[in-house]
Amino acid sequence: MRIFYETNHDISQKPSSDEYYPASKLKRVTVILTVKTVITAFITCIMTKPIQIELPLGTTFPSVNIWLIPGDEPVLIDAGYRLPESFDLLKKGLAENGYAISDIKKVLITHEHPDHVGLLPQILEESDASVWCHKALAPWLQDYRSQEKKTFAFFDIHLEAAGLPKLILELIAQGAIQRSLNIQVPDSRLRCFDTGDTLSIGDFNLEVLHTPGHCVTHYGFLDEASQVFFGGDLLLQKAPFPTVREDPDIAGKRYSGLPDFMKSLERLKALNVNKIYPGHGDEITEINPLIDRQVHRIHQRKEECLDWIKNGQKTVFEICQKMYESPNFMLQFAGAMMIFGYTDLLIQEEKISVSYNDKKEMIFEVIVDSSNARPVSR
């Protein structure tokens, strides 16, 4: 169904060159809008706009967002990163919009990473807020250190399998200890939801979507009426790396994050949302072009990864040294996570195989096809 709006707007002031409709023939402009467009525009105008509170991060991204949904029962989406100044900056951001920590009624969590849950203990201490999360995140929020310990034991095995030098492994372990969080949300203040549930948050009715890739327990929240999406770390200006986690369906197996991330981007593109409130950076309105650029870049880098394997780089770390050469160990770490992802895609496409040497390192080999393509010189 379409609505037709007509007006007798005089466009005779427009130039009469061929690139415009001749003013002598066109006296009215017909504007065609779909019902959905009109309704969405109206809803967007009257809804309360989420407020961005940026907190420092200083890792692969300079800052992390907490989104404040104002109203009689103000809500925070995510809880930032724990740095000495972070809680004061959160209080300052709230005060600038007429709120205090004690006013917060709910904190909604997209995923368990420390830059998204870091201030939960302080928020809970100074407010009566309840914490809302997907049921898969509940173990993390009930006993963060216990889950972190299990995760890093698994993580360490796969970083060694990647061939990372001992010094980098030690630096990563030190960083993990420094970032360790003591989060223990009491059962009385924890509210769990499931994929497909709808949450009434301020003016929004948010559908819970499972958006795995960056991590397996990653969730986004869609308001279909206004076509806005609270996306966590799904779509950012720079694609997030897939983190190493155990596959929830197969004990002992590493979860293949990048293939799932690509699927989540495809699903997001199909939603045709108008605006995304991301976990890092400003709100995003040019959504599908950004998705297309990221997908293209991932495929491009995946093929570069294949070229390096053809040329003799056999481990994750060896490939990383070619594709992400940097003295910064955190960038090397992030690069290694992306190499895991590129090789997962290449294995799915049956372009490479993986085995283990006597050091228990993953060794990649090109699967030779009938074309007998020669390695690319670099």
What does this entry show, briefly?
The chain has about 375 residues and is an alpha/beta fold. Helix content is about 35%, strand content about 20%.
Structural description of this entry:
It is a single chain. The chain is built from eleven helices and 15 strands. It is an alpha/beta fold and 378 residues long. It has a six-stranded mixed sheet. A five-stranded mixed sheet has the order 9-10-11-12-13, with no helix packed on it. Helix 9 (287-310) crosses helix 11 and helix 10 (316-323) crosses helix 11 (329-348). The protein starts with a strand and ends in a 12-residue tail after the last strand. The relative contact order is 0.10. Mean pLDDT is 85; it is low at 1-33 and 36-46.
Fold blueprint:
Layout: E1 2-7, E2 29-34, H1 35-46, E3 51-56, E4 63-69, E5 75-77, H2 86-95, E6 106-108, H3 114-117, H4 120-125, E7 130-134, H5 138-142, H6 144-161, H7 166-179, E8 190-193, E9 198-201, E10 204-210, E11 219-223, E12 228-232, H8 257-271, E13 275-278, H9 287-310, H10 316-323, H11 329-348, E14 352-356, E15 362-366
Parallel strand pairs: 5-6, 6-7, 7-8, 12-13
Antiparallel strand pairs: 1-2, 3-4, 4-5, 9-10, 10-11, 11-12, 14-15
Helix pairs in contact: 8-9, 9-11, 10-11
